[in-house]
Amino acid sequence: MISRRSVYIPAILVAAASLILILYAFFGMAHHAPPGAAAGALPHDMKPKGKKAAEGLFKNFGTIAVFCGAVSYVWLRLKTKRRSPSSVVQILVKWFDKLHTYAGYGAIVLVAVHGVYFLTQAAVKDDTYTGLAAFALLLSLGVYGFLIRRVKNKHMRKIHFLLATAFAVVACIHAGSSAIMATVCTIAFWGLVLLMERSARPAGERKAA
Protein backbone atom coordinates (compact mmCIF):
# COMPACT_ATOMS: atom_id res chain seq x y z
CA MET A 1 0.00 0.00 0.00
CA ILE A 2 1.33 3.44 -0.94
CA SER A 3 2.04 5.81 1.97
CA ARG A 4 2.80 9.01 0.05
CA ARG A 5 1.49 12.05 1.88
CA SER A 6 0.94 13.97 -1.36
CA VAL A 7 -2.70 12.81 -1.22
CA TYR A 8 -3.16 15.42 1.53
CA ILE A 9 -2.42 18.30 -0.85
CA PRO A 10 -5.86 18.57 -2.57
CA ALA A 11 -7.62 18.28 0.81
CA ILE A 12 -5.41 20.98 2.32
CA LEU A 13 -6.06 23.30 -0.63
CA VAL A 14 -9.83 22.77 -0.35
CA ALA A 15 -9.73 23.30 3.42
CA ALA A 16 -7.68 26.50 2.98
CA ALA A 17 -10.08 27.82 0.33
CA SER A 18 -13.05 27.02 2.59
CA LEU A 19 -11.42 28.84 5.50
CA ILE A 20 -10.83 31.90 3.30
CA LEU A 21 -14.49 31.89 2.24
CA ILE A 22 -15.63 31.67 5.87
CA LEU A 23 -13.31 34.47 6.97
CA TYR A 24 -14.49 36.57 4.03
CA ALA A 25 -18.10 35.95 5.05
CA PHE A 26 -17.47 37.22 8.58
CA PHE A 27 -14.77 39.86 8.13
CA GLY A 28 -14.46 40.68 4.43
CA MET A 29 -16.17 43.04 2.05
CA ALA A 30 -19.34 40.95 2.06
CA HIS A 31 -19.75 41.75 5.75
CA HIS A 32 -19.08 45.46 5.38
CA ALA A 33 -20.87 46.06 2.10
CA PRO A 34 -23.24 49.03 1.99
CA PRO A 35 -26.94 48.17 2.45
CA GLY A 36 -27.73 48.76 -1.21
CA ALA A 37 -25.17 46.22 -2.40
CA ALA A 38 -26.96 43.28 -0.82
CA ALA A 39 -30.41 44.58 -1.58
CA GLY A 40 -30.95 42.58 -4.72
CA ALA A 41 -33.87 40.86 -3.07
CA LEU A 42 -36.98 42.21 -1.43
CA PRO A 43 -37.59 41.65 2.30
CA HIS A 44 -39.06 38.21 2.90
CA ASP A 45 -42.56 39.50 3.74
CA MET A 46 -42.69 41.47 0.45
CA LYS A 47 -41.72 38.57 -1.81
CA PRO A 48 -44.35 36.95 -4.05
CA LYS A 49 -45.89 33.82 -2.58
CA GLY A 50 -44.43 31.67 -5.35
CA LYS A 51 -40.90 32.87 -4.58
CA LYS A 52 -41.40 32.28 -0.85
CA ALA A 53 -42.56 28.74 -1.55
CA ALA A 54 -39.59 28.09 -3.84
CA GLU A 55 -37.12 29.41 -1.26
CA GLY A 56 -38.72 27.24 1.40
CA LEU A 57 -38.46 24.16 -0.83
CA PHE A 58 -34.79 24.71 -1.65
CA LYS A 59 -33.97 25.48 1.99
CA ASN A 60 -35.55 22.14 2.84
CA PHE A 61 -33.22 20.48 0.31
CA GLY A 62 -30.31 21.92 2.28
CA THR A 63 -31.75 20.69 5.58
CA ILE A 64 -32.29 17.18 4.20
CA ALA A 65 -28.72 17.22 2.88
CA VAL A 66 -27.41 18.01 6.36
CA PHE A 67 -29.22 14.99 7.81
CA CYS A 68 -27.96 12.81 4.94
CA GLY A 69 -24.50 13.95 5.91
CA ALA A 70 -25.23 12.99 9.52
CA VAL A 71 -26.25 9.49 8.40
CA SER A 72 -22.91 9.17 6.62
CA TYR A 73 -20.99 10.51 9.61
CA VAL A 74 -22.59 7.91 11.89
CA TRP A 75 -20.70 5.29 9.87
CA LEU A 76 -17.32 6.66 10.91
CA ARG A 77 -17.81 5.19 14.39
CA LEU A 78 -20.23 2.41 13.54
CA LYS A 79 -17.75 0.75 11.18
CA THR A 80 -15.60 -0.18 14.21
CA LYS A 81 -18.47 -2.29 15.58
CA ARG A 82 -18.33 -5.19 13.12
CA ARG A 83 -17.65 -7.62 15.98
CA SER A 84 -20.12 -6.04 18.37
CA PRO A 85 -21.66 -8.36 21.02
CA SER A 86 -25.07 -6.96 20.02
CA SER A 87 -26.76 -8.65 17.06
CA VAL A 88 -28.79 -5.48 16.49
CA VAL A 89 -25.62 -3.41 16.19
CA GLN A 90 -24.17 -5.94 13.74
CA ILE A 91 -27.29 -5.56 11.59
CA LEU A 92 -26.94 -1.76 11.75
CA VAL A 93 -23.32 -2.08 10.64
CA LYS A 94 -24.40 -4.02 7.55
CA TRP A 95 -27.11 -1.48 6.73
CA PHE A 96 -24.96 1.59 7.23
CA ASP A 97 -22.08 0.09 5.26
CA LYS A 98 -24.11 0.66 2.10
CA LEU A 99 -26.43 3.40 3.34
CA HIS A 100 -23.66 5.85 4.23
CA THR A 101 -22.41 5.88 0.62
CA TYR A 102 -25.83 6.60 -0.86
CA ALA A 103 -26.57 9.17 1.87
CA GLY A 104 -23.26 10.92 1.14
CA TYR A 105 -23.86 11.15 -2.60
CA GLY A 106 -27.44 12.19 -1.92
CA ALA A 107 -26.15 15.03 0.27
CA ILE A 108 -23.87 16.22 -2.55
CA VAL A 109 -26.75 16.29 -5.06
CA LEU A 110 -29.12 18.06 -2.65
CA VAL A 111 -26.52 20.67 -1.64
CA ALA A 112 -25.71 21.29 -5.32
CA VAL A 113 -29.40 21.88 -6.14
CA HIS A 114 -29.82 24.02 -3.02
CA GLY A 115 -26.73 26.07 -3.86
CA VAL A 116 -27.49 26.60 -7.54
CA TYR A 117 -30.93 27.98 -6.67
CA PHE A 118 -29.68 30.49 -4.09
CA LEU A 119 -26.69 31.52 -6.19
CA THR A 120 -28.92 32.31 -9.17
CA GLN A 121 -32.17 33.40 -7.56
CA ALA A 122 -31.20 35.19 -4.35
CA ALA A 123 -28.94 38.06 -3.35
CA VAL A 124 -25.37 37.18 -2.36
CA LYS A 125 -25.11 37.29 1.43
CA ASP A 126 -22.65 36.21 4.11
CA ASP A 127 -24.11 32.73 4.24
CA THR A 128 -23.53 32.38 0.49
CA TYR A 129 -19.81 32.15 1.21
CA THR A 130 -20.17 29.74 4.13
CA GLY A 131 -22.41 27.62 1.88
CA LEU A 132 -19.75 27.55 -0.83
CA ALA A 133 -17.18 26.53 1.78
CA ALA A 134 -19.41 23.70 3.00
CA PHE A 135 -20.06 22.48 -0.55
CA ALA A 136 -16.35 22.51 -1.42
CA LEU A 137 -15.60 20.35 1.61
CA LEU A 138 -18.53 18.02 0.90
CA LEU A 139 -17.57 17.58 -2.74
CA SER A 140 -13.93 16.83 -1.91
CA LEU A 141 -15.14 14.46 0.81
CA GLY A 142 -17.18 12.62 -1.80
CA VAL A 143 -14.21 12.42 -4.17
CA TYR A 144 -11.95 10.98 -1.48
CA GLY A 145 -14.70 8.56 -0.46
CA PHE A 146 -15.02 7.40 -4.06
CA LEU A 147 -11.25 6.88 -4.31
CA ILE A 148 -10.73 5.08 -0.98
CA ARG A 149 -11.11 1.60 -2.49
CA ARG A 150 -9.50 2.57 -5.79
CA VAL A 151 -6.32 4.29 -4.59
CA LYS A 152 -4.26 2.10 -2.28
CA ASN A 153 -2.95 4.76 0.07
CA LYS A 154 -3.11 4.39 3.83
CA HIS A 155 -3.85 8.09 4.33
CA MET A 156 -7.07 8.16 2.29
CA ARG A 157 -9.39 7.11 5.11
CA LYS A 158 -7.87 9.61 7.54
CA ILE A 159 -8.31 12.42 5.02
CA HIS A 160 -11.89 11.28 4.42
CA PHE A 161 -12.55 11.45 8.17
CA LEU A 162 -10.91 14.88 8.56
CA LEU A 163 -12.90 16.33 5.66
CA ALA A 164 -16.12 14.88 7.08
CA THR A 165 -15.41 16.51 10.44
CA ALA A 166 -14.54 19.82 8.78
CA PHE A 167 -17.77 19.68 6.78
CA ALA A 168 -19.78 19.03 9.96
CA VAL A 169 -18.27 22.13 11.59
CA VAL A 170 -18.84 24.36 8.56
CA ALA A 171 -22.38 23.00 8.13
CA CYS A 172 -23.12 24.11 11.70
CA ILE A 173 -21.80 27.58 10.84
CA HIS A 174 -23.83 27.77 7.63
CA ALA A 175 -27.08 25.99 8.50
CA GLY A 176 -27.22 26.75 12.20
CA SER A 177 -29.92 24.96 14.18
CA SER A 178 -30.67 22.22 11.66
CA ALA A 179 -27.01 21.17 11.45
CA ILE A 180 -26.64 21.37 15.22
CA MET A 181 -29.72 19.15 15.59
CA ALA A 182 -28.23 16.66 13.11
CA THR A 183 -25.02 16.64 15.15
CA VAL A 184 -26.95 16.02 18.37
CA CYS A 185 -28.86 13.16 16.67
CA THR A 186 -25.55 11.63 15.55
CA ILE A 187 -24.12 11.73 19.07
CA ALA A 188 -27.39 10.34 20.50
CA PHE A 189 -27.27 7.48 17.99
CA TRP A 190 -23.70 6.63 19.01
CA GLY A 191 -24.82 6.67 22.65
CA LEU A 192 -27.70 4.29 21.83
CA VAL A 193 -25.27 1.91 20.12
CA LEU A 194 -23.08 1.86 23.25
CA LEU A 195 -26.12 1.12 25.42
CA MET A 196 -27.13 -1.77 23.14
CA GLU A 197 -23.62 -3.17 23.35
CA ARG A 198 -23.55 -2.92 27.12
CA SER A 199 -26.90 -4.66 27.45
CA ALA A 200 -25.72 -7.45 25.09
CA ARG A 201 -22.64 -8.28 27.18
CA PRO A 202 -22.77 -11.06 29.78
CA ALA A 203 -23.56 -9.85 33.31
CA GLY A 204 -19.99 -10.51 34.48
CA GLU A 205 -18.49 -8.35 31.73
CA ARG A 206 -20.96 -5.52 32.48
CA LYS A 207 -19.94 -5.51 36.15
CA ALA A 208 -16.25 -5.52 35.23
CA ALA A 209 -16.82 -2.59 32.86
> Biggest sheet: strands, sense, closure?
none
N to C succession of SSEs? HHHHHHHH
Query: What gross morphology would you assign?
Result: globular
| Low-pLDDT sequence parts | none
Overall residue-averaged pLDDT value: 87
Rg, alpha carbons: 20 Å
Brief digest:
The protein has 209 residues and is mostly helical.
Describe the structure.
By secondary structure, this protein is mostly helical. The chain has helices spanning 8-27, 29-32, 49-78, 87-121, 126-147, 156-175, 177-200, 203-208. It is globular and about 60 Å long. The two termini are 37 Å apart. The model has no long low-confidence stretch (mean pLDDT 87).
Q: How do the helices and strands line up, and which of them pair or pack?
A:
Layout: H1 8-27, H2 29-32, H3 49-78, H4 87-121, H5 126-147, H6 156-175, H7 177-200, H8 203-208
Helix pairs in contact: 1-5, 1-6, 3-4, 3-6, 3-7, 4-5, 5-6, 6-7
Keywords:
77% helix, single chain, mainly alpha, 8 helices, 209 residues
